[in-house]
Amino acid sequence: MVTTVYLMSSTPGNELLQMLGSVAANDARSGNYAGVADPAVDEIIERILQVRSRDELQLATRALDRVLRHGWYMVPQFHSSSYRVAFRLAAAASRGAAALLRSAELAAGDLVAGR
Fold it and tell me: What is residue 115's predicted lDDT score, i.e. its pLDDT?
């Protein structure tokens, strides 16, 4: 069992081939630690690389998520139901801690609502 974090951009692309592609499954230097070698995953990655809109990207990445979950290649280890906010004390004093916390609550609400 390997514990790792996969860092992703908001628009995943070629890095998916190294992390999840069949070609990388037997390469110890790749990021495909789970050894995923699934034609369905390869096909979805190719689709992700060819999308032309944000909606297509969202659909394709959701499909990839479902296939990976179904294959039990990775097991999520950590989850937090709360948001943590860090800020500088000087900024809190000048703007007011209550205002900073309120803006953090609004931002967290946007994340939960998918805005």
Answer: 47
Compute how many other C-beta atoms are within 10 angstroms of the C-beta atom of residue 20: 27
Whether pLDDT at 80 is above 90? no
Question: What tokens appear for 63 in the block?
Answer: 């499909």
CA separation (Å) from 54 to 12, 48, 61, 75, 88?
11, 10, 10, 27, 35
Q: What is the pLDDT of residue 88?
A: 61
Report residue 44 CA to chain centroid gap. 16
Residues 21/48, Cβ–Cβ less than 8 Å = no
Are 45 and 64 a contacting pair, CB within 8 Å? yes
Q: Whose structure tokens read 């992700």? A: 48
Between CA 14 and CA 16, with CA 15 as vertex, the angle to 5 degrees is 90
How far is Cα 54 from Cα 113, in angstroms, rounded to an integer?
18
Cα–Cα distance between 107 and 16 in angstroms, integer? 29
**Among 1-5, 30-34, 90-94, which is the least confidently predicted range?**
90-94
